[in-house]
Amino acid sequence: MTGTMRPQLQPPLTPFVDPLPLPRRILAGQGGGELTVRIRAAAHRFHRDLPESRVWAYEGLVPGPTVEAERGQPVRVCWRNEIDQPYPVVVTLAPAETDGDGVPVQCLPGLSGGTPDPDAAALTGYTVVHLHGAVTAAPSDGWTENVFAPGQHAVSDYPMDQRAALLWYHDHVMGVTRLTVYAGLAGLWIIRDQRERELGLPEGPPFEVPLLVQDRNFGQAAGGRLTGELVHKTDPGTMEAFAPFTVVNGKVWPVHEVPPATYRLRVLNGSNARTFRLVLLRDGRPELDRITQIGTDSGLLPAPVAVPADGLVLAPPSGPTCSWTSATSSRAASSPWPTPQAPRSTATHSPPPVPPRPPIQASSCPTPTSCASVP
Q: If we measure between CA atoms, which residue out of 214, 177, 149, 188 comes closest to residue 69?
């Protein structure tokens, strides 16, 4: 008796051709602790071979700028809502969990027979910003009903009276947070303090690399070509979106060439539902002895810990910090497809001496679990 073989999925986009972008930095102290961040419609290219996608984004960037603040130095942000275009994502519910070949529809681009949700299309750009993980007074906490409309603004005060940690800010409107974050409204926020600096950890580029890991899906034309239009697709059995394309700092499966050094990876899972398993690979084999977890989204751990043998599980929205020693250049962001192109490593030169406070670099290989098992 023979079983039915499913067709082999192939990635419709070539992995590891786009350089990993590093988010724009905003140093809060340089502006006296007062910032203005615009929230607006923009165009963003997620991959070299995709047309531009319409997005809503902080400062028009995906992800938004990374704000860096000092412990004990309050930050005031004027969030200006300048959204002037319709909601940029097609939201749909596919009629079946799998296609005719038995492949889960959430592993496939396009609408999979679903129709666009008119209620989602009617979203008008009301917003409210939540700084996730911050110790914040109620008026500035970004409650889901404290919305402000296009043309309005809101002022939030963040005391920064907490230890150094990786936070993130995102839209938080009641009932549609999953849709507005998917449209692009997310960014990282780093709190620094002197105690952390005394440890000599890398701070800032190029050896500290913030990594916002998310998943996205895109529309598909009649001939199978990807249109670049963002698609948020669910199915009758899974009412959360598990999109098939891994996006790191706004790029699908990017590549980051690095010189030998010690790097600090600031990783945050900003997906709606997907859990990632992060594994450092070289020539397709795990090299977990070269990476150590030193923190979580609450700040540094009491002591470094080894990464588990099967990788570091990262559920949304959590953000570990890892220290990675590279003796080679490396490529970042593995693929969720069943036969992904493995990240490659190429030796460059002998490791240079590491300065007392090196800058950092990032390379982790987020691999979604939902679609990876589809044959």
A: 188
